[in-house]
């Protein structure tokens, strides 16, 4: 039995659960290695009980799923959707106890699916549970760390390459397309998420959707993107200037970079995540620019681009050894644009370690 499943079963026992239904494709992959094709379709369901773990999927995935079969992982191949229901029912109803308690992923299951399970599993007490597996995923293994580091390094190399190709008159979308090609050329699996390439006033919108605006001399150009490598994500933000930056813009860039460096230097094992946010917030308040900081300081990353922990003002989490998360201060001004610098850090030997190379001030 792999260590992840062992840890998960231990948690189920501590929670007083007799079993668990895993529906999230990402969590199924984390526990079993089964990937499927779509991250949004129900291509597999995982049933966990004290004695065994059962992966149930359709015949389209027979070859992939069968390779994962082991003493601790049983695989059931359904010829049709109705047979999937039969496998779930037979596995769950075999649990001992007068009224077995079976957990499910409250944040993932649709209401229609919940009603379906309630009807299918009469006599079983279904317990909604939040983020049991996501909490396991917070601390990364050595292999996960290696994959995320590789994804981030690919992202940085791709950025260094794409800025050499930038010319006034290109559209944001053209630059984003070029960036994706470069990522794949450097060995990336693809994009971790849709890249943001925001020019001029568009860079003042933290979650701008890349469009067809043509870049002009004097623009701020903000990148937010990440490569994916062996299913693990990277996340990188860089801000450059097309032509000579104005004194105000250079000053804002320096504030963002200084605040990031300060936060990374202070972050350590055991620090409250909200305190990491506080370092940045206090720096910006001191210089009376805090009203232009519009989002949290960062987020965890792994199989998904947004994972635990959250480095926000109201976060209740503590940072710990083995966590990887982003540090991404930003300041946004509707009149001319924004500056964001984002890097990933790993808590190792008690301190935050930058993954890859730090940002540098760039004018082209």
Automatic annotation (TrEMBL):
Q: Please, which domain of life does this record's source organism belong to?
A: Bacteria
Please give the InterPro entries that the UniProt record associates with this protein: Creatin/AminoP/Spt16_N, Creatinase/aminopeptidase-like, Creatinase_N, Pept_M24, Peptidase_M24B, Peptidase_M24B_aminopep-P_CS
Q: Which UniProt keywords apply?
A: Hydrolase, Metal-binding
Which positions fall inside the Creatinase N-terminal domain? Answer: 4-139
**Ranges for domain Peptidase M24:** 147-348
Keyword Metal-binding (UniProt):
yes
Q: Which GO terms describe its molecular function?
A: hydrolase activity; metal ion binding
Q: Which PANTHER family match?
A: AMINOPEPTIDASE (PTHR46112), XAA-PRO AMINOPEPTIDASE P-RELATED (PTHR46112:SF2)
Family, as annotated: Belongs to the peptidase M24B family.
Its protein name is Xaa-Pro dipeptidase
> What organism is recorded for this protein?
Candidatus Curtissbacteria bacterium RIFCSPHIGHO2_02_FULL_40_16b
């Amino acid at each position: 039995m792999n260590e992840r499943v062992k840890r998960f079963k231990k948690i189920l026992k501590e929670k007083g659960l007799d079993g668990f239904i895993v529906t999230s494709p990402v969590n199924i992959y984390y526990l079993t290695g089964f990937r499927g094709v779509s991250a949004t379709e129900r291509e597999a369901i995982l049933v966990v009980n004290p004695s065994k773990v059962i992966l149930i999927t359709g015949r389209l995935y027979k070859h992939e799923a069968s390779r994962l079969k082991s003493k601790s992982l049983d695989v059931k191949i359904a010829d049709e959707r109705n047979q999937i229901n039969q496998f779930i029912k037979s596995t769950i109803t075999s649990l001992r106890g007068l009224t077995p308690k079976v957990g499910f992923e409250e944040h993932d299951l649709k209401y229609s699916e919940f009603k379906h399970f309630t009807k299918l599993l009469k006599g079983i007490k279904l317990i909604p549970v939040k983020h049991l597996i996501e909490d396991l995923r917070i601390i990364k293994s050595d292999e996960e760390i290696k994959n995320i580091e590789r994804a981030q390094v690919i992202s940085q190399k791709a950025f260094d390459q794409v800025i050499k190709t930038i010319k006034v008159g290109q559209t944001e979308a053209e630059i984003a397309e070029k960036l994706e090609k470069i990522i794949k050329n450097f060995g990336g699996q693809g994009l971790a998420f849709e890249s943001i390439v925001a020019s001029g006033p568009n860079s003042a919108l933290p979650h701008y959707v890349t469009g067809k605006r043509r870049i002009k001399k004097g623009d701020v150009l903000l990148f937010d993107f990440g490569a994916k490598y062996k299913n693990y994500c990277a996340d990188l933000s860089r801000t450059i200037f097309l032509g000579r930056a104005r004194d105000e813009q250079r000053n804002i860039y320096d504030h963002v970079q200084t605040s990031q460096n300060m936060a990374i230097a202070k972050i350590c094992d055991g620090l409250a995540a909200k305190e990491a946010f506080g370092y940045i917030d206090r720096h910006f308040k001191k210089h009376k620019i805090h009203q232009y900081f519009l989002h949290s300081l960062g987020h965890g990353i792994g199989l998904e681009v947004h994972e635990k922990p959250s480095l926000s003002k109201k976060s209740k989490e503590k940072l710990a050894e083995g966590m990887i998360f982003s540090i991404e201060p930003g300041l946004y001004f509707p009149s001319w644009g924004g500056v964001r610098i984002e890097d990933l850090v790993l808590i190792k030997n008690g301190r935050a370690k930058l993954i890859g190379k730090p940002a540098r001030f760039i004018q082209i």
